[in-house]
């Protein structure tokens, strides 16, 4: 079995961050989202992985490399434009070469991983196995209808949902999916939709089975989703302090403080992760915060936020909360009134708060 991770797309809902970075490389708990997908595939025993790349291919290839960091073999497959998930499957046919494969959307996170999902496919041997999750607002997702334990219909973002079972963004297919993607027509978006391809399998007598997620999953397509995913990941960290914490500082709860980081006259209240060579001075870093590498935070308070590498936050009089701050951002203060700040700031930006 092979893996196929989709890492194309423009990430328009995450702009301005994605003007200068692939959305799948935005870090959650200081690890790029894409890396979680690679780890999930490796944990399930899949070591041959194709990655669909688009206009951010250079950055993705630089970060991921040949896969040796995970003990897997990475092959890159270029998609000329974001022409749909089924189009990504179509262009991967030569790579897949009739083997069953897991298709994993590179901006999805699944707490339980996919090991049980893969085992079920290998045991039952359906033509396709689709990962589903019960959701509160199914009208925002592709929705599956079940009949006699099998998928009978898929509906994309229905106004009146026929069920609350949303497609998670992880699928397993056998070679018959290539018949489907070569027979369907582009949608109104001029894309080949994976829901149409799966519906083709259903209507032509192929066995399409469901598998329900037992833990949480997140589609990290919007800033608030990334902040929530960061919170969920940090819930499960264990304390590891490799950096320097001065005697006048306090680390409360679970925290990862990486090598070269320095905590000076500050309070760290976990769960928190602070990256390499970051310096926290006279500040408070509150629960569910991820501070990346080489960040400098001075006389400021941050909680439930993500700050990417080489950013500077200095003398901010009110607490930064529920915020996502890009790379090489500078946030400073002039004369100001106390207030809560909520920020989505792109890479190489500068903000002065007054």
List the helices and strands and how they pair.
Blueprint: E1 2-7, E2 27-28, E3 31-32, H1 33-43, E4 48-53, H2 57-64, E5 73-78, H3 85-91, H4 93-96, E6 101-105, E7 108-110, H5 115-124, E8 128-134, E9 142-147, E10 150-156, E11 165-173, H6 177-181, H7 194-203, E12 208-212, E13 217-219, H8 223-234, E14 240-241, E15 244-245, E16 250-252, E17 255-257, E18 262-264, E19 267-269, E20 272-274, E21 279-281, E22 284-285, E23 289-291, E24 296-298, E25 301-303, E26 306-307, E27 312-314, E28 320-321, E29 324-325, E30 330-333, E31 344-345, E32 350-353
Parallel strand pairs: 1-4, 1-6, 4-5, 8-12, 14-17, 15-18, 16-19, 17-20, 18-21, 19-22, 20-23, 21-24, 22-25, 23-26, 24-27, 25-28, 26-29, 27-30, 29-31, 30-32
Antiparallel strand pairs: 2-3, 6-11, 7-13, 8-11, 9-10
CATH topology of the largest domain: Spore Coat Polysaccharide Biosynthesis Protein SpsA, Chain A
The shape, in one word, is elongated
Strand order of the largest sheet: 5-4-1-6-11-8-12
Task: Please name the CATH architecture of the largest domain.
Answer: Alpha-Beta Complex
Q: Residue-averaged pLDDT, rounded?
A: 87
Question: How would you briefly describe this protein structure?
Answer:
With 354 residues, this protein is of the alpha/beta class. The protein has helices at 33-43, 57-64, 85-91, 93-96, 115-124, 177-181, 194-203, 223-234, and strands at 2-7, 27-28, 31-32, 48-53, 73-78, 101-105, 108-110, 128-134, 142-147, 150-156, 165-173, 208-212, 217-219, 240-241, 244-245, 250-252, 255-257, 262-264, 267-269, 272-274, 279-281, 284-285, 289-291, 296-298, 301-303, 306-307, 312-314, 320-321, 324-325, 330-333, 344-345, 350-353.
């Amino acid at each position: 079995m092979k893996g196929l991770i989709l890492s194309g797309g423009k990430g328009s809902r995450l702009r301005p961050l994605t003007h200068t970075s692939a959305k799948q490389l935005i870090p959650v708990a200081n690890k790029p989202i894409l890396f979680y997908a690679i780890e999930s595939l490796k944990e399930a025993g899949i070591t041959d992985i194709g990655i669909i790349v688009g206009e951010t291919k250079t950055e993705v290839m630089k970060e991921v490399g040949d896969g040796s960091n995970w003990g897997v073999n990475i092959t890159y497959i270029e998609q000329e434009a974001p022409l749909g998930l089924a189009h990504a499957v179509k262009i991967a046919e030569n790579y897949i070469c009739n083997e069953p494969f897991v298709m994993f959307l590179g901006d999805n996170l699944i707490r339980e991983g996919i090991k049980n999902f893969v085992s079920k496919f290998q045991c039952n041997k359906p033509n396709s196995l689709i990962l589903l999750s019960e959701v509160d607002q199914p009208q925002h997702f592709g929705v599956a209808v079940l009949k006699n334990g099998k998928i009978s219909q898929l509906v994309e973002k229905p106004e009146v949902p026929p069920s609350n079972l949303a497609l998670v963004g992880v699928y397993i297919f056998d070679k018959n999916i290539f018949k489907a993607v070569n027979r369907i027509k582009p949608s109104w978006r001029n894309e080949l939709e994976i829901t149409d391809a799966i519906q083709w399998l259903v209507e032509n007598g192929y066995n399409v089975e469901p598998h329900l997620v037992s833990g949480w999953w997140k589609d990290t397509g919007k800033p608030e989703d990334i902040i929530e995913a960061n919170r969920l990941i940090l819930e499960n960290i264990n304390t590891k302090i490799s950096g320097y914490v001065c005697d006048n500082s306090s680390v409360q709860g679970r925290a990862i403080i990486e090598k070269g980081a320095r905590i000076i006259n500050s309070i760290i209240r976990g769960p928190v992760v602070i990256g390499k060579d970051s310096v926290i001075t006279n500040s408070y870093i509150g629960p569910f915060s991820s501070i990346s590498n080489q960040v400098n935070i001075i006389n400021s308070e941050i909680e439930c936020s993500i700050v990417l590498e080489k950013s500077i936050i200095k003398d901010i009089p009110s607490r930064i909360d529920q915020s996502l701050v890009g790379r090489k951002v500078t946030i400073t203060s002039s004369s100001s009134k106390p207030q809560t700040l909520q920020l989505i700031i792109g890479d190489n930006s500068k903000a002065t708060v007054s």
